[in-house]
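From: lab user (bench 3)
To: helpdesk
Subject: output format question, protein + nickel (II) ion

Hello, I'm new to running complex predictions and I'm not sure whether the block I got back is the full result or only part of it. Here's what I submitted:
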Amino acid sequence: MSYWLDSHCHINDEAFREDLDDVLKRMAENDVRKAMIISSYLEDYDFGLKIFHPEIAFKYSLGIYPGDVDEVDEELFHSYEKLYAEERCDAIGEIGLDYHWNKENKERQKEIFARQLILAQKLHKPVIVHSRDAIQDTYDLMKEYRSEGVMHCYSDSAEMAREFVKLGYYISISGTVTWKNAREPLEVIRNVPLDRLLIETDCPYLTPVPKRGTRNEPSYVVYTGKKICEELGIDEEDFKIQLNENYHKLFGL
Ligand code: NI
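Helpdesk reply: Thanks, we reran it on our side. This is the complete output you should expect:
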């Protein structure tokens, strides 16, 4: 028996503080039994580590978000570094480059990204990478400081997706694949081998159809998974088995 999973969620976000128990209950009811909880801040990471449901297996990721690099001094960087080395930290992320929100600090973004990639290599931990309007620089750094990892909420071309796969990286698809204007994500899923695909919500953002317009949550990852099966003409059970295999290959058992 295999289950659905959410390879990237922010249920430690304030958006879920009021009704987290219900959110977890809906995950279990919809057979979403595994989830990676992503933290950008130390307080969120601590909170995430305490989230518990008897039928759901959580993993934990921490990383300095590209939008925050101007706020990070050496002391803070060192605090993250110490936590990365701990066994309970399953992955480093989300890290990466975001030139959509800020192109004035490109060099600083690249520096912090590269330093975290180097730590991932050293610690043998996978990376979870955010890239927005910065795909070539992201690719160049991930090629130079190569490790295991996933392109989260992948939103660039199918051609570039194939290049990341060639380097051994996974491609994670979010709810945008269910949206009306989903031409590019649909092209991506047709160009990435199944053994390199993951799915995610990135909740509370990027809610899939038919829930679009409301807060996203991990149980909605099922809409994304089913849409991919429908588009590729593959069996749901087979796809779930493959997803679970990919997830554990990348993030460990
Ligand atoms: Ni995220």
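A quick orientation on your result: Residues 106-123 form the longest helix (18 residues). Let us know if anything else is unclear.
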